[in-house]
Amino acid sequence: MNRIIEKKYLSENVVQLEVEAPLIAKSRKAGHFVIVKVGKYGERVPLTIAAANTQTGTITLVIQQVGKSSRKICSLNENEYITDLVGPLGKATHIENFGTVVCACGGVGTAPMLPIVEAMKQAGNKVIVVQAARTKNLIILEEEMKRFSDEIVIMTDDGSYGQKGLVTQGVEQVINREKVDLCVTIGPAVMMKFVSLLTKKYDVPTVASLNTIMVDGTGMCGACRVTVGNKTRFVCVDGPEFDAHQVDFDEMMMRLNAYKEYETM
User: Fold this and answer.
1) Which of 4, 5, 54, 128 is most enclosed, with most CB atoms within 10 A?
2) Residue range 6-14: average pLDDT?
3) Residue 151 sits in a domain of what CATH number?
C-alpha cells in the first residue's frame, strides 16, 4: 500500500496526488506510467507519472474525474492509502538533442507532458510548449511548464486566457516563424489527430502519446490495440508513444467511444 502525502485540486475535476513510492521514483523516466488500484476489487487504472522526487521518494499523479474508478481514486485524502501501485511501465520517451521541440498538449494531457518537457530541456533542446484548454479554469501546471520550457503559448477555446483558438493554431504559429525539429503531442485523440495532420503538412516529425486508450496496462486485455503503420500495436507494451503520422486516429477514436457508456457510471 502506498500513502498519499499531498492532495490538491488543479481544477474542478482534476486532482493531483503526491504518493509514496520510493522504488518507482528512483527508476521512472519521462513517458513511464503506473497501474493504480483502490480497494481489493478495484479497477486497474493506468496513470502517467507526472513527476518524481527521489529525495522524498514520491511520485506525482494527476487524475481527471471521469467515471467511477477515477472518482474513487480522487476521493482519497492525505494519509490514506492506494491499495496497489505497480510500475514504472511502458517505454520511456526517446530523449536527445533534436534542436527545437514543440510540445503540444491539451487539457489533462499537460500532466504527462511535463516530465517530457523537463527531459527535453535537460537534453539541450529549445522547448516551446503550446498548451490548450476550453477555458482559463482548465489550464493546469502552467507555472511548472514555464520552469522547464523556453516559451509557453496558451490557447483557450473561448479566449478567456492566452490566445483564442485551438492548439493547432498555436503550433502553426511557431512552425511559421522558425524551424521545428520535433513535435510531441499529448491530449484528447481528436486533438492529437489534427496536430498530426498539421505537422505532416509541414514535414515535422511528430510523436503522440496514446495513453488515454490503455485499460489493463500489461498487454493482456487487448483493449489498447491501435494500428500504427498498418500494423497492430499494443499501447501499454509497445508504447505509449508512437510516430503520430503512422497512427490510425480514426480507429483509435472509434475504440475509445466503446467505453463512453461505462465512463459515466
Assistant:
1) 128
2) 90
3) 3.40.50.80
For residues 159 and 180, membership in a common domain is answered with yes
60 vs 241: CA distance, rounded Å:
20
Q: How far apart are CA 184 and CA 206, in angstroms?
A: 6
Grade residue 219 by pLDDT with cuts at 50, 70 and 90: low
> What does the pLDDT look like over 27-44, one tens digit per residue?
999 989 898 988 888 888
Residue located via cell numbers 488543479: 10
Which domain, by its residues, includes 223? 100-257
Burial of 32 per CB tally in 10 Å (0-12, 13-18, 19+)? buried
DSSP code for 91: P
Q: Which residues contact 232 (CB under 8 A, 6 or more apart)?
A: 225, 226
Give kind and range of the element (H or E) at residue 69: helix 68-74
Compute the chain's Rg from CA coordinates. Answer: 17
pLDDT of 221-249, one tens digit each? 777 788 889 898 888 788 788 999 999 88
Rounded Cα–Cα distance for residues 216 and 212 (Å): 12
